[in-house]
Design goal:
By secondary structure, the chain is an alpha+beta fold. It is 31% helix and 19% strand. It has one domain (4-128): HIT-like (HIT family, subunit A, 2-Layer Sandwich). α2 (54-74) packs across α3.
Length: 129
């Protein structure tokens, strides 16, 4: 059975996509910690990040770096934090989270409930950064 993320890759589920290439895709988190919280994933369905082959692992981080730089330009934040948790969806993924305080990266925080219009505005800001 395909993961939730594979369904996004295959366009079976909607997502606010920020960047994409042949092997990776980045999209806004559906339950963000803060505005601009983004998930970056390989298109190849692999459960654990550290199970990626070395070339794919390195390429995913390079892709993430490019996305993080755009987030940092588009979203008012001190820096973009990184987290790899992997408990929510069995598909390797990197969280890129705009940070202003250490608490912004606490996954126990209540998640934001954004409107479709807010997601579209954030998506546009990041894509155009």
């Amino acid at each position: 059975m395909s993961s939730l993320f594979t369904k996004i890759i295959n366009r079976e589920l909607p997502a606010y996509i920020l960047a994409e290439d042949e092997h990776h895709i980045a999209f806004l988190d559906a339950m963000p910690l803060v505005k601009g919280h983004t998930l970056v994933i390989p298109k190849k369905e692999v459960d654990l990040l550290f199970d990626l082959d070395p070339e794919s692992y390195t390429a995913l981080w390079r892709f993430s770096q490019n996305v993080a730089k755009k987030i940092g330009k588009a979203i008012d934040c001190k820096r973009v934090g990184v987290a790899v948790v992997g408990l929510e969806v069995p598909h390797a993924h990197i969280h890129l989270v705009p940070l202003n305080t250490m608490a912004d990266l606490n996954f126990m925080n209540e998640r934001l409930k954004l409107t479709p219009q807010e997601y579209l505005e954030i998506q546009k800001q990041i894509i155009e950064a």
